[in-house]
Specification:
By secondary structure, this protein is of the alpha/beta class. It has one domain: Vaccinia Virus protein VP39 (Rossmann fold, 3-Layer(aba) Sandwich). About 45% of the residues lie in helices and about 15% in strands. The protein has a 7-stranded mixed β-sheet with strand order 3-2-1-4-5-7-6, with helices on both faces. The longest helix has 20 residues. The structure holds S-adenosylmethionine.
């Protein structure tokens, strides 16, 4: 069976058909209307961000620091798990850029998170890093949402990078962020950290920001992967937020947005 026929078959048999259809249409629409990424000069380099960041975050993120070692550990664990699993259903290219991965760890660690929420798990590099930070803080739980890729319709490889010992702090919901996020947030005390790495499109990031922001406690923050120029404009026109746009290191066309409350 060709890959396209297999995907059509997976779609027809998926329990998330409506959510997938909406997601596919939304992704296509965003390609036409909001596909442009922030250009050169529109984001700080990782080094520039580091120089301007608070001392605790800077210490964690400095070259050779704790965040770098955490990313190395999680990536090593992912490679071992992937080798044991055999052929992967989607490319490891979708794993977080090193700077996004380090930020996920360092923010969860420095905020001393009680509850963090994440959209978009994939193989779970960012999930594992947030959970590792929580293990080291001896507190915290992570609630994640993932609409599995059509190449892995039952989500068998979702969270492959998350070691068993970290899973007690983890709750994973299968489905779209639009389906689960409001209910999860309404049933949870204010959260300290929201990480967005689902479809990486303008309308979804704006939806996730507008849904999560009222539930983020003062002093907390939200981190968005691979923002569009339109989302950057939207954030800069939003009152009451401190926004840092940071160019990624391995995926240099991508920009992360860190929004602090
Ligand atoms: C880029 S991957 C996440 C990578 C992960 N953060 C990491 O570092 O390993 C994006 C994931 O989000 C899922 N996804 C796509 N659209 C979604 C949606 N609307 N709601 C929830 N998850 C979604 C994809 O299927 C994929 O598993």
């Amino acid at each position: 069976m060709s890959a396209t026929v297999q995907k059509l078959f997976n779609f027809a048999n998926s329990r998330h058909r409506r959510a997938r259809l909406r997601n596919m249409l939304e992704i296509q629409l965003n390609k036409w209307t909001a596909g442009e990424r922030p250009g050169d000069g529109k984001a700080a380099s990782f080094e520039e961000f580091l120089a301007a960041s608070p001392p605790r975050l800077r210490a964690l993120l400095q070259p050779g620091g704790e965040a770098e070692a955490a990313v190395r550990e999680v990536r090593g664990g992912f490679e071992e798990a992937a080798a044991a699993r055999g052929p992967l259903p989607f490319p490891a290219f979708f794993n977080a850029d090193v700077s996004f991965a380090q930020l996920s760890y360092a923010l969860a660690r420095s905020l001393g998170c009680e509850t963090a929420v994440e959209s978009g798990v994939g193989y779970g590099v960012t999930s594992a890093l947030i959970l590792l930070a929580m293990e080291r803080n001896s507190r915290g739980r992570l609630i994640s949402i993932d609409l599995p890729a059509l190449s892995d319709p039952h989500g068998q490889s979702i969270g492959l990078a998350v070691p068993d010992r970290l899973r007690a702090r983890w709750q994973l919901h299968s489905g779209s962020t639009r389906q689960h996020l409001p209910r999860i947030l309404n049933g949870t005390a204010p959260i300290c950290f929201f990480v967005s790495d689902s479809a990486n499109i303008f309308t979804m990031q704006r939806y996730e920001f507008e849904t999560a922001w009222p539930h983020i406690r003062r002093g907390g923050g939200a981190l968005f992967n691979n923002i569009s120029a339109k989302f950057q404009q939207y954030l800069s026109g939003t009152e009451g937020v401190v926004v840092h746009c940071i160019r990624q290191v391995e995926k240099s066309k991508s920009v992360s947005a860190l929004v602090l409350k």
